Amino acid sequence: MVKVKFTSILLLLLAIIGTGGCANDSRDRVNVTAPDGVLNKTEFVNVLADIQLIEAASKNRVWRNDDVEKRLGDAYNEVFRKHDITESQFKASHSWWWNHPVAMKGVLLEVTERITQLEIEAR
User: Fold this and answer.
1) 83: buried, middle or exposed (CB in 10 Å: 19+, 13-18, 0-12)?
2) How far is Cα 10 from Cα 122, in angstroms, rounded to an integer?
3) Which of 10, 79, 85, 110 could bridge across to 89 with cysteines, CB 3.0–4.6 Å?
């Protein structure tokens, strides 16, 4: 009898600790503040939108096959220059935002909206 109560109490405590830890995990929040060295949401959306356009151009074979890698690298560097960031800032930001999946979902939605708006403007 005592063994059953102890096991029940232990399982209850583990459940409380487990759910409490998840509820306060900053990675599960919609509104997060990026730390120093990481692009804020608006900046990251703008950079990602430009990068998605580059990726689309590459997949649509806008460039010749023999120089795709070079052109892709040059295009990425141009995006970094345009947004006044470094490759390492982009990588740190990319990693940080993807480690916050709920907030990243909002980023991806905004990127989609931005690209859709650019398509509308281009017509």
Assistant:
1) middle
2) 62
3) 85
Dihedral class, residue 39 (left if φ above 0, else alpha if ψ from -120 to 50, else beta) = beta
- Say how many C-beta atoms besides its own lie within 10 A of residue 104's C-beta: 19
Tokens 């730390």 belong to which residue? 35
When pLDDT is averaged across residues 5-27 and rounded to a whole number, the result is 52
pTM score: 0.72
Q: What is the pLDDT of residues 46-58, one digit of tens each?
A: 999 999 999 888 7
CA of 21: how far to CAs of 3, 12, 17, 113, in Å?
Answer: 27, 14, 6, 33
Residue 19, pLDDT score: 46
Distance, in Å, from the CA atom of 71 to the CA atom of 74, rounded to the nearest integer, reads 5
